[in-house]
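Q: Joint fold for the lines below.
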Amino acid sequence: AQSVTQPDIHITVSEGASLELRCNYSYGATPYLFWYVQSPGQGLQLLLKYFSGDTLVQGIKGFEAEFKRSQSSFNLRKPSVHWSDAAEYFCAAAGFQKLVFGTGTRLLVSP
Amino acid sequence: SQTIHQWPATLVQPVGSPLSLECTVEGTSNPNLYWYRQAAGRGLQLLFYSVGIGQISSEVPQNLSASRPQDRQFILSSKKLLLSDSGFYLCAWNPGGPGNEQFFGPGTRLTVL
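A: Joint structure:
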């Protein structure tokens, strides 16, 4: 069965430090992959997506993600975290007619 | 441009009461529509999705139901709420086709007392 794994439930990063959130997928073919962000009490906002082509994908708010087929990974990165980045982050992969989501990683930003 | 609306934004209901949450999409036609639930401290659980009027797929057996009476309207219902139905309910849509990128509504916070 298709699955998406986010191994980190919580991550704390100092403001200004770099960030990497991990995502691994289990799919038979090259998947369509997404990262979403959710602020408390809000809906999900798409940060970026990978369909094909360049394996390094740029998104909104200074985020990027790299698709690595050999590692079945699609990790999200940001070079310098801002306090406003504190939120829940979800990785997802496209299945038939629906998305398969990971369980999410909560990012805490310390001053 | 496309927009998605959910109402109400918040709802407090007693156990055993009925429920109706509404989701409406504007600016597109024949979207795929989805209902998700987030329990406190948990991830997203897909409840129902619909690829057309009157077509509903259920992902998790429970006391909730969904209907799609119009192309861009998706309704989540229950005849009798349980305490465990409390959570944050999210509606989403996508235009169909490969990739299934979804766009989410603002959500409804449901508290069952």
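Q: Anything notable?
A: Chain A touches chain B through 21 residues (CB under 8 Å). Chain A has one domain: 3-110.
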